[in-house]
Amino acid sequence: MKIQKEIDFILAVDALKNVQRRNYNADDSRRENTAEHSWQIIILAQILFPYAKNNADINLLRVMRMLSIHDLVEIDAGDTFLFDEEGMKGKFEREKLAAKNIFGILDEPLSSEFYDLWIEFEEEKTPDAIFACAIDRIMPFILNSHTSGKSWTEAGVTEKQVRNMLENAICRASDEMEECFRLLMKKCFDENKFS
Questions:
Q1: Is the N-terminal amide bond of 140 cis, ω within 30° of 0?
Q2: What's the pLDDT score for residue 113?
Q3: Which residues of the chain have pLDDT under 70?
Q4: Type and span of the H or E element at 123
């Protein structure tokens, strides 16, 4: 069958539904899975795109493609909690091997296109990647600020950690996202969501 590798790939990435994240859904009832996170950030990118700095230089379709594939590496590498300092050691190398593995299921040129998009996202240098990264970082932040913040309180996440890991990534992408970050940080502080 001509599209067998494409079918093999889509069946392989179905496993993303089984990768649990530390973050809870908006109703605080359960942890989200990575496939749910990917779906949600693709929608959020479309909604916040008008607010992106230099959005004339951003290709929204490329951003959405990046967001749709950047977490596929978690199928092999697992989800590393952003605030797990020990777990973050070696994360890029683990995920790079996983990216080669999962994208390697596909034929060229798509295999290289996906891998290159993944690398671009990770390097956070292009306007597309800067915006995509901000979207990826702000979504869990929004969820923690509008729920009990269990994923943070369970892990003892501090205000300083949130600032270190999120502030620059979010604020450099959009003035409106920066305002949102500042207001939600105050809300989290006022509601004792930091250790």
A1: no
A2: 98
A3: none
A4: helix 110-123
Per the structure block, which two tokens stand in for 182?
């500042």
Q: Which contiguous run of DSSP H or E holds residue 33? A: strand 31-33
* CB within 8 Å of 92: residues ≥ 6 apart: 122
User: What's the one-letter identity of residue 78?
Assistant: G
53, 40 in Cβ contact below 8 A? no
SS3 88: helix
How far is residue 179's CA from residue 152's CA, in Å, rounded to a whole number?
Answer: 21
Question: Within 13 Å, how many C-alpha atoms sit on residue 116's CB side?
Answer: 8
Read off φ and ψ for residue 22, nearest 5 degrees.
Answer: -75, -25
CB 26 within 8 A of CB 148: no
- Tokens for 131? 């915006």
The helix-helix angle for 4-13 and 91-103 (nearest 10°) equals 140
pLDDT tens profile 91-126: 999 999 999 999 999 999 999 999 999 999 999 999
| Whether the predicted model's global pTM rises above the 0.85 cut | yes
What is the rounded distance in angstroms from the CA atom of residue 135 to the CA atom of residue 155?
22
